[in-house]
Specification:
Elements: E1 10-13, E2 34-38, E3 56-62, E4 74-75, E5 86-87, E6 100-113, E7 116-121, E8 131-137, H1 140-143, E9 163-165, H2 167-175, H3 183-192, E10 207-213, E11 216-223, E12 226-234
Parallel strand pairs: 9-12
Antiparallel strand pairs: 1-2, 1-8, 2-7, 3-6, 3-8, 4-5, 6-7, 10-11, 11-12
């Protein structure tokens, strides 16, 4: 057995402040963009020269919030209801022999300001603070295969669970409309994916949930097949 070590080259800044409610894949949330801040000595404009000519990049990262849990030979993918076991190598589970992840993300721009090199990213599926170990440009001619088979994940997950904002949440949306003009759409799309654990879906009883998104602690109640946003309080 050979072991390897990697240097962290940067950190993700994301609207998702915890693992709960992070979308299953990038591109699913319209306003869920973020940034990748490169660390020294990799924060050099020369290191990203020419990258602006690519529309998308592969971001290789570490599952830092679950790596201490070790790996499992079989896992229960949420897309299969959380009950069916599948080999870990047939999934993108975080519980892997090596806690490495990869995500294909739109590159919207690059800012170089003094000692800061920042990649502006489109819709992502990474929690705030995720350590990044590598970046590679996406090559459509080699990596786009529309006719490829994808097992249980052939199509994007449904994201049509209704969301309504109760009076307190409506008032808070109005209070923050200037700073966050798309906050309603962002929360609606995140909750529309039904981020509950797979074993909770289909429950008849009402249950309250909370998640930190952007600067807000968003509280909502699931009533049947409806999400009711109760409040969004600033942290």
């Amino acid at each position: 057995m050979t072991s390897f070590s990697f240097e962290q080259i940067g950190t993700i800044h994301s609207p998702y402040k915890e693992k709960f409610a992070v979308p299953r894949q990038p591109g699913l949330i319209e306003d869920g963009g973020g940034e990748l801040h490169l660390h020294a000595p990799y924060n050099q404009p020369e290191a990203v020269r020419g990258l602006e000519d690519f529309s998308h990049i592969w971001v290789m990262f570490i599952f830092h919030q679950t790596m201490e849990g070790g790996w499992r030979p079989t896992v229960r993918p949420p897309r299969l209801g959380g009950n069916t076991r599948t080999g870990v190598f047939a999934t993108r589970s975080t519980f892997r022999p090596n806690p490495l992840g990869m995500s294909l993300i739109e590159l919207k721009g690059i800012r170089c300001q003094g000692q800061n090199v920042i990649l502006q990213l489109g819709s992502l599926d990474l929690v705030d603070g995720t350590p990044v170990v590598d970046i590679k440009p996406y090559l459509p001619f080699a990596e786009s295969h529309p006719q490829a088979r994808a097992g249980f994940a052939q199509h994007a997950p449904e994201a049509n669970m209704p969301v309504e904002f109760l009076p307190q949440a409506e008032q808070q949306l109005a209070e923050h409309a200037r700073q966050y003009p798309h906050l309603r759409r962002f929360i609606t799309q995140v909750l529309g994916q039904d981020p509950r654990p797979a074993y909770r879906k289909g429950e008849a009883a009402e249950r309250d949930y909370a998640v930190r998104l952007l600067e807000f602690n968003v509280r909502w109640r699931v009533t049947g097949s409806l999400n009711q946003v109760l409040s969004l309080d600033k942290d």
